[in-house]
């Protein structure tokens, strides 16, 4: 699928010499959900600001829908919706007037049917005449999304959209994002909640200290870098791992009542059959077995620590 956002070797250097972005190159396909992960100060918000025209790159080039964000700013910006981290809304305005006004800011003709559709999609229709100050934090974030969608953008940036939102509302947000994707909207999501990226993203990007460490299909990333663990619960307790099992690098758990075997999902052989035979020969009796996969969080932490160690 063709790229709707093209970022080529973008650098951003602030006064004083701080490099917020160090040659970021990234293509984002139309209709995909890309989750951008990184610790505080990694460059996530700076990158979004550059694409949205809120910060001008020091060098490099960014295009949205083929329009350069610097030389053809208005056309590029019309294609982009931005939901910022900060909830900055006029407290005494109603939901309806707030969203309709945002559409007008982009020079779009009045379209009350579209505004109604957006509010219904975001479960805000029954709040349309409610003043912003009377809304909960989660509802205010929905209003931010409605504002960002009011001018019918093809690309939507969500900068920490569920920060401070409870778990139930966060899952509601995930459903909203899935619905937007179904409507053909391209979504770029920055988040500190790695479970969020794992739940809804098509691809994962990891950024740290202004550098893009990788961008990869989520499932392929977890398959390529993930490890599985086999948890072996024993019929009785052991005080030490038998010497015959040394080659398997087992870990003892629960005071000797279980063993943990870690293996690479990419390997041609897992070694499990050999381990089972060795355990039987060592006189260990199994009570139960269970496997678990490394989470995206494990992979993310490992990548960041690896990059910091190489610095």
UniProtKB/TrEMBL annotation:
Identify the domain of life. Answer: Bacteria
Which ranges form a coiled coil?
Answer: none
| The keyword Transferase is annotated on this UniProt entry | no
Record's InterPro entries?
AAA+_ATPase, ABC_transporter-like_ATP-bd, ABC_transporter-like_CS, ABC_transporter_ATP-binding, P-loop_NTPase
What is this protein identified as? Multidrug ABC transporter ATP-binding protein
Q: Does the keyword Heme apply?
A: no
Q: What's in the keyword line of the UniProt record?
A: ATP-binding, Nucleotide-binding, Transport
Domain ABC transporter residues, every copy: 5-234
Give the source species.
Answer: Puniceibacterium antarcticum
This entry's Gene Ontology molecular function terms read:
ATP binding; ATP hydrolysis activity
